[in-house]
Amino acid sequence: MKKKLAAAFLTLCMAAGTLAGCGGDSSSASGDTSTTGTEENKTEEKGETTEAQESVKMSAEELKSMGLEAEDTDLTGEFTYWSAFTGDSQVWDQSRVDAFNELYKDKGIKCNVQFVPDGAGINNGKLLSAIAGGQAPDLVICDNATAAYSYAANGSFEMLEPYLEQVNLNVDNFFDGCKDVIYYKDEPYLIPQDTNVMLLYYNPDIAKEAGLDPENPPKTLDELDQWAEAMTIQNDDGSYARFGLIPWLDLKDDAFTLPFFFGADVYDADTNKLNLTSPQMVSCMEWLQSYGEKYDPERISSFTSGLGGMFSPDHAFMTGKVGMTITGNWFSNALRVYAPDVNYEVCAVPVPEGGRADSTTFQTNVFAVPKGSQNPELAALFIKFCMSGAVNEDNFAQWRSIPTSDAEFDNVSLTKDGDEMYKLERELANSPENGIPALCSCSAELAKAFVTFREGVIYGNITDIQGELQKLQDKYQTELDNAE
Questions:
Q1: Among residues 140, 174, 196, 171, which one has the least CA distance to residue 384?
Q2: Where is this region: Disordered (predicted)?
Q3: How far apart are CA 365 and CA 383, in angstroms?
Q4: Residue 406: what pLDDT?
Q5: Which residues contact 264 (CB under 8 A, 6 or more apart)?
Q6: pLDDT digits (tens, 9 = 90+) for 236-275
Q7: Of 32, 126, 394, 454, which one has the greatest count of Cβ atoms within 10 A?
Q8: pLDDT of 33 strictly over 60
Q9: In angstroms, how far is the first alpha carbon of the chain from the final one?
């Protein structure tokens, strides 16, 4: 695979426009890739620091008080780190770097961080250009695991095993679903910082108003559709005052989460084969199509065009314009900060018969060491620092993101405090069905193409779902075969 790096670089640079659409707008340390970050970006442009941003800062003294000490290491020197985070999460990551530098100052170790748009340069080709020009950073963190995995598969990242061994970081106890993204051909290339759980958020007040029982949220797809219809309010002119559910609302750049819940297996790593035409995939697309047909795609488009992003007080769930939405645990922090008076509950994402009930995809930010890194050992030391419970405690408390292993849940304050939402997240995280779908050498391109396909299905441009899926499968299977 190493000898293919130059060819992979040319191929991926040609696809830079494709890659740019896959990561979405990075915003949260939790791995969210769907938010526009409207308000926080305005604040960032003005150079202001919000109360929420102040609350996510950490210091070396705080970490020491929680028992974290510098590793006993002979390593020394400086290394460069590209971070994908923006807004509140940029503040959090900067404080993490500052704390690391303070902790390791006496050892002559320093992390120099740059905040690089579009997934730490992964989605716009900047990282590939840096690698090709011999100017690669020593470490990146990307909020788009699918795109990062494509880089690993195409030889753009270093294999991490020797460096993990040097700093004694063991990933054997990580959730099996996390290992989907860690390993490429049985070798580790990516390390999840933490992970996340996908949930159905619903407003119990709207549920009551619609004659539903908020104590018994929907468990099946049919029940979800019934709730969506009951919550929807249409105006006399045909426009909508409220939708019960717009399934794709907070999954704009997320191609494969909904097919996962339907039971679709997009890619088989053992055979290197795609399966985009399965009954489960077709069923998922037909379900999305049915929402477009039932509620009129033009009216849906008009309704959603003026909505605020996830980290904005104008988000549709916060303003009561939708009664339910499917997204990750990070949304609980957005609600806390931007809509503290909005009542909400969460449950497992409802699925059709034969789907992956009581499970979740793992949405995660991933660390990687680019090819050409001059200090991979220092990069690995920083990764280990970032995996510690003390560093992640605030991350978990703010975003309700979860550790990468079950045992670490017991060390999180939300667990100790008996947080009900966190308890549900732990239950879902332990499902044997969990994973990160569609991870292959063409993941980034495929995800972008699939989002475009999905839009065509929803808005009526694609009617032959099976046929168009077959075309996608043929195209990208050819790419997979040629990469062998």
A1: 171
A2: 22-58
A3: 12
A4: 94
A5: 256, 275, 278, 280, 281, 284, 437
A6: 999 999 999 999 999 988 989 999 999 999 999 999 999 9
A7: 32
A8: no
A9: 9
Residue 282's pLDDT is 98
Adjacency order of strands within the sheet including 198-202? 233-234, 240-245, 322-328, 198-202, 345-347
Beta bridge partners of 274: 267
3-state percent helix, strand, coil for the chain, nearest multiple of 5: 45, 15, 40
In DSSP terms, 242 is beta-bridged to 233
Pick from 49, 42, 322: which is nearest to 201 by CA?
322
Quickly tell me which residue has 């996608």 as its tokens: 472
Q: What is the pLDDT of residue 60?
A: 76
Phi, psi of 261 (to 5 degrees): -65, -25
Residues 6+ apart with CB under 8 A from 148: 119, 122, 142, 157, 181, 190, 366, 368
- Residues with Cβ within 8 Å of 210's Cβ and at least 6 positions away in sequence, in order, are 227, 230, 231, 244, 323
- For the record, the structure tokens of 96 come out as 């993490």
The CA R_g of the chain, rounded to the nearest whole Å, is 22
Half-sphere exposure of 134 (CA within 13 A, CB side): 0
Tokens of 406: 């079950």
Burial 122-158 (b: 16+ CB within 10 A, else e): bbbbbbbebbbeeebbbbbbbbbbbbbbbbbbbbbbb
Q: Tokens 């957005």 correspond to what residue?
A: 334
What are the pLDDT digits (tens) for 112-163? 999 998 999 998 999 999 999 999 999 999 998 989 999 999 999 999 999 9
SS3 call for 474: helix
Which comes out higher in pLDDT, residue 45 or 396?
396
Alpha-carbon distance 17 to 224, whole Å?
A: 36
Whether 157 and 368 have beta carbons less than 8 Å apart is answered as: yes
The answer to whether 243 and 232 are in contact (CB under 8 A) is yes
User: Two tokens at 382?
Assistant: 């920083």
Distance CA 22, CA 472 (A): 17
- Beta strands 183-184; 187-188: pairing state: antiparallel
Within 8 A by CB and 6+ apart from 39, the residues are 311, 312, 313, 338
Strand pairing category for 233-234 and 240-245:
antiparallel
pLDDT exceeds 60 at position 166? yes
d(CA 157, CA 151): 7
- Please give the structure tokens belonging to residue 187: 């070798």
Closest CA to 404 of 20, 88, 31, 6: 31
Higher pLDDT, 12 or 180: 180
Cβ neighbour number for residue 387 with a 10 Å cutoff: 19
221 in Cβ contact with 230 (< 8 Å): no
CB 181 within 8 A of CB 439: yes
Find the range with the poorest average confidence among 249-253, 360-364, 388-392. Answer: 388-392
